[in-house]
Amino acid sequence: MAGRLLPLELVDKCIGSRLWVIMKGDQELVGTLKSFDDYVNMVLEDVTEYEVTPEGKVAHKLDHILLNGNNIAILVPGRSPDDG
Amino acid sequence: MAGRLLPLELVDKCIGSRLWVIMKGDQELVGTLKSFDDYVNMVLEDVTEYEVTPEGKVAHKLDHILLNGNNIAILVPGRSPDDG
Amino acid sequence: MAGRLLPLELVDKCIGSRLWVIMKGDQELVGTLKSFDDYVNMVLEDVTEYEVTPEGKVAHKLDHILLNGNNIAILVPGRSPDDG
Amino acid sequence: MAGRLLPLELVDKCIGSRLWVIMKGDQELVGTLKSFDDYVNMVLEDVTEYEVTPEGKVAHKLDHILLNGNNIAILVPGRSPDDG
Amino acid sequence: MAGRLLPLELVDKCIGSRLWVIMKGDQELVGTLKSFDDYVNMVLEDVTEYEVTPEGKVAHKLDHILLNGNNIAILVPGRSPDDG
Amino acid sequence: MAGRLLPLELVDKCIGSRLWVIMKGDQELVGTLKSFDDYVNMVLEDVTEYEVTPEGKVAHKLDHILLNGNNIAILVPGRSPDDG
Amino acid sequence: MAGRLLPLELVDKCIGSRLWVIMKGDQELVGTLKSFDDYVNMVLEDVTEYEVTPEGKVAHKLDHILLNGNNIAILVPGRSPDDG
């Protein structure tokens, strides 16, 4: 598949930019991607984690986190749930 | 199985065209398939994600996404949930 | 086990004929089997997918689909849920 | 473990006879075992599948099926849920 | 770990004696262990299976069964749920 | 990581002493660790298993058990749920 | 990815400092990281485990624990749920 951006190549292009992560179950977060490994475990900085509560989504600010790759469902480069 | 289109060969034929993805659980989305890897992780563009809410399906537009292959149940080439 | 039809040999014999697929959870569909791979990912054509809704089973017609093998519980060659 | 019937040897001895299969979750079925592979995927004939409904167990007759081995919890040679 | 009975060595010592099996979810059974393999799939005889129903535990007698090892949570040699 | 006690080294140091095991789901038990293998399957003696019931936690005494490693979430050396 | 801190390198940098662990499901705990292995099984000391109860979060103090890596969703270096 010459010329096509393979999935992990797309992730590599996101290094240093904002990435919206939708996890299995209904957890979501947004952060700046610093690095990732072959299992798509990720280091993210300047993170906002959206907790789903009966009163709606509550945002928590976190400096940096490490995310377990096998819990990820969807990655959305350059966007955030707040974009509406 | 000469002459038969193997599953990943079908996916390869979908590159550049619309693909409806039904995931385990009740999440669904439609997008243009840009690339995929051996684990059927996918890069999709011009995506509409259908969120199931008590008020019915809500559509969200996303430029491009990366989808975790192990969360996929069914792929429907050339169709969308809106086709009814 | 000479003379016995091994499971994947049975699947191979179903190529070109109708196959009822019962998935983990309560999703079911019927289609004509076009091909499959070692993980029993399947390409099916002329598919009817049965969605379980509070009002009962709703049938959706799909031209062709790719089905993730690890989500399959039971395959029933030559039959369909409509056979009653 | 000379002299002891290993699990897959017991399954092999069941070829041609009735086998009650209790699956993870509450699905059950009974059928004549025709063949199986290393993953204990099974081909069964003359099958009765017991669907658990609010009104109790409903039996469905199926000619032959292929059963995904990783969904099996317990195998009971020579018996059936109807034995009471 | 010389002198210590490793887990599978303990299972081997249970061959021929009563074994209480507590499975993931709330299924339980007791039986005489006849054999097991590397995946701790087990052949058990003279089995009592305890079904959890709204009216309490219902015991079913089974001659012999084959149990899928990956569904086991706890093994209790020489005991049974009826010991109280 | 010279000088640091690796996880399985910590488990090895627990041989012969009391170990509180918190499993995935809400099952808990305490016992004396006799042995373990590479999959952290464990042999425990003098065990108290805490069953969560609508009326609160009910303790069951068991002589010795074999515990499936892949069901363990947390190990707490030298402590028990009764420590409060 | 020269110059970028890979996920396990970030974990290594956390040795000796406080780490907030968010697990799959809603279990959370905070502790000082003592060591970890390739599966990100972790030894933590001076631990506070937050149990989610109908009355809100209840904190339990534990000297040291071993945590099963495959149950981890998110690691937050240097922070705790009490930071609000």
From TrEMBL, chains A, B, C, D, E, F, G:
Q: Name one Pfam family in it.
A: LSM
What's a single GO CC term here? U4/U6 x U5 tri-snRNP complex
Domain of life assignment: Eukaryota
Chain ranges of the Sm domain: 6-81
Summarize the protein's role: Plays a role in U6 snRNP assembly and function. Binds to the 3' end of U6 snRNA.
Quaternary state and partners of this protein? LSm subunits form a heteromer with a doughnut shape.
The protein's name: U6 snRNA-associated Sm-like protein LSm5
Which keywords appear in this protein's UniProt record, sorted alphabetically? Acetylation, mRNA processing, mRNA splicing, Nucleus, Ribonucleoprotein, RNA-binding, Spliceosome
